[in-house]
Amino acid sequence: MDKKKLLLFVGIFLFLILGLSVLSTEEVNKNGINIIKDFGNLFMNLPEGSIIGSEDGVKYDRLKEGGRFTFTGEESSLIIQGSSFEGVLPKDSDGHSSFIEVNLLGNITKADFAVGENGGEYLIGGVKFDLPPNSRVYYDNENGFRFPEGTKITSLSEFYNLGRELQFEGNNLNFIDEVIVNGQLKLNKYGYLIGKGEATYEGMKIDNFFGHSDVAILKNNLDKLKEEDISELSWIKKDSNGLEFSSSSTGSIFVEFLEGNDILNVGKHGKLELRIDGGDKLKISKFSGVPRFNYIPSENGFTNIINDGLSLELDKGGKHYVDISPVTLKDFSLDKYAAVPAIIESDVLDEEIRINSRGIVYDLENPIMSLKTEELNGLMGSLKENIKEEGNLDSAFRASQFFLLSAKNNHFTTSENIDLAKKIVQSSGEYSDSVLYKVKFGLDKLSKDDVKISYGKFSQFTLKNLDNLDFKYGDGLDKLDAVYSVLNNGLKENKDFNLIEDFSLKIIKSDFNSDKSILLLSKNINEYNGANFESMKLGAEVVGRYNMVPGVVDFLDLKYSNIKDKKTFGKEYALALNQYFKDKDSIQKSDSQMASFTLDQMHLLESQIEHSDIIRNSIISNLDANSKYYLIANSEGNNNLFTSTFEKIYSSIDKKDVSELMKSVDPNGDYWLKFTTELSARGKLPELYKQDTVFYRKLIQDSFDNHDEDILFENAVLMTETFQDLYNRPDIYPGEKEAFEEFLISKYKSSESNNEKGVYAYLLKLNTNPNTQKAEKIINDLPELRDAILPSSFSQRDEIAAKLYFYSDENWFSIATNDFNSNYKMDLEWNNGRQARLSKPINGKKIIIDLELNDPSVDFVPSIEEDIKGQTYLYIAHRGHSFNTEKTYPDFLSSDTTKIIHLAGCGSHGALADYQKKFPNSFFIADKDAGEGFPSDKVAYFVLEGIAEGKLNWEDLTPDFAEEKGLVFPEQESLPQYLKRYESEM
Prior knowledge:
Largest sheet: 26 strands, mixed
Structural class: alpha+beta
Number of strands: 39
Helix content: 25-40%
CATH architecture of the domain at 792-970: 3-Layer(aba) Sandwich
Mean pLDDT: 85
CATH topology of the domain at 792-970: Rossmann fold
CATH class of the domain at 792-970: Alpha Beta
Low-confidence stretches: 6-35
């Protein structure tokens, strides 16, 4: 064959091969316009037909790890691995584009698309689902699905074959007519895991209000289920043996059996709710006849059963609490009062609890059900005669049922109970419901404390007080709580009944500056002598004005008649505290911490309102050595004692020989170690150390002996400053550096765990100039202790953002917003009263400060988990009271992300060790004193500005005013940061 023919043959061959391959992947219409394209074959080297779609309706973009398909036309079509995506809109009503992303294998990794009025059924990740009309779905293979309301999951068979776990989120999500979810749910090979939200399953509504831990519905592969797979879960299981509920040690299960539920024969008017908490278990067997509940208690859990007319609480001690649920007038007239019959058994119960259809447990029955006709008519007649408003009448009828039960528990006769109820209604009129409840609570208090009183005296006491009570607009009703507190406390103290009655009537007739003053006064009936009410009232009002924590009066014997003003209040508080600490056997750590906390809170309130410090100064000047010692010993690193308060107490101690003071006050040494670690944490131990080096050295060494790793970690953090001082000034502490080098080396070598070794390695590395060759060799072999330097990525960002969390019990949200705007010239981009954003260009970058206002009643800030784990913010700050810090950084939250975390609450430095463990890669700014707002604003701005200017070393990011304001910034890498490197390098 000549050369020309050979070339012609090759050309024809190549044309046929290439042409056929193109024709095999594209269809051409009559006008020559491409309408179908094999995207997978052309662009991703996938097998023919893996991904095909319409030419005009789908746009392909190459990604690093796959590709993105964007829907561009109304009639677009796309098929991925056999899954068809018809009816997808190019954009939704808000203008958001629809797209699907795949990896190099052609599997869908992300989808975000809208559908029109016809909805559509699709298959992604093994999940087949039916979208409602005019809706949008979001999916990614890491975070799962976010479905529109009303989505129905029609098949999961392919998902189960994949053996994976997937997250779902949405409202009214129907999972194959088996489970309906409002909120979050995870699906795995064993079944459904309900996150935050609620689900309906087998006629049960399962609530997981807070979502701290998942509640699992176990239904698949139960034969392969292992105990370790579910040991940390709360779970529900239904099988041929019945129903089983098991709560985790930190979780809860809330279940309501719905009307018509066929598992437990819940009647049309029946109601059955369960709460299983803290490790408790409940098994329900026998689905016909009377269900049998088998209660299995845990160490710290409890279980609550609400069965229409009955509320029953169980714990490891057995039957803990039983009460009734009231009947409405309407239901009473229609005889609609039916519980779910049940038998409850447990090893902790002396006998079975049998509940019949009227909610009766043994002899516990709603007393209204057993009244004789004439008794019932008498009560109803009194109610109708004195209460004209229909709603008030029904409320009073329900309240009377609780009152009658409480009266019965106090052994009053039925006729006495009815007689007193009628007289209360006659005195109270339209306020009868509230008054009946108040009297009921008074009776319950007497019953709980086993305080005996005759019907005659109780009736006389109650009616005398009611006759003198002003019911206008409901004013004064809260005083009834106080007078029954007086009655209970007075009877327990064997106080003369006439004095009890006289004292309570004076409370009823008097005006007070606050409800807190009334409560405080009611606890001090024992001080009343018949002639000192006004002086006691004045003292209680002074105390109440300064926000005294009520629990303190339970162990401090304050004499209110001695209190005339702030100065005498401080003196009386100190004298009562001195008296308490004299009895060493009675000292409770929680009590002394509460006393310290109260001292600081009173100081804070006085300084904010009146700009004075009289109470705190008066307290400290009247404290004796015992009190000063125990307050410091139990303050736990600023958690319970402001630095300024500590400084005042510490400066008042005779420091000629503090070790001798410790020995004389606490001869058994019960609190020596705590006192010493507090002195170290606050930087005071070095100045005392040379007074008695042997004594203090042993205490420091004891702080590292015989402790678990958490305590070891905490003590290392608290002792860091002392070790640095001993290392850096050997001339002041001759021989001590060598002694601690030897001690730490010994502890390092004898430690069994890497974590424990790492703690001692950290303390050794603080010693930059060891005295002995032995120490030098070991220290040089350990991983280097690095300076505190932020990651370079922080300053490389175009936007450098902070998030500050405020609470509505203070005004700092609006104050800080104005401060950043006015004093730091930041632009206010928006402010809706709950959230605000300010920004400012610096060095070609944009610094952003977002502020968020939260309700202090929340269990935790809803946005914190996403903010601290995400990449939007590099600076996170709690900007509220110290007691709200746990709402900003809740116990369940931890993260390995690198952030700057500002603990701006009062005395936050004491909790530093805890937060370092939860967020080990973060850098912390903490406050030793009362967290002030304006300095905290300045810190946030100063740090963000510095990062924008390229400053990453904390030495450059620490403002000049830090020490003066009690602010603690990072100096070297933290202990958890060092431990992480130690474990990897050693």
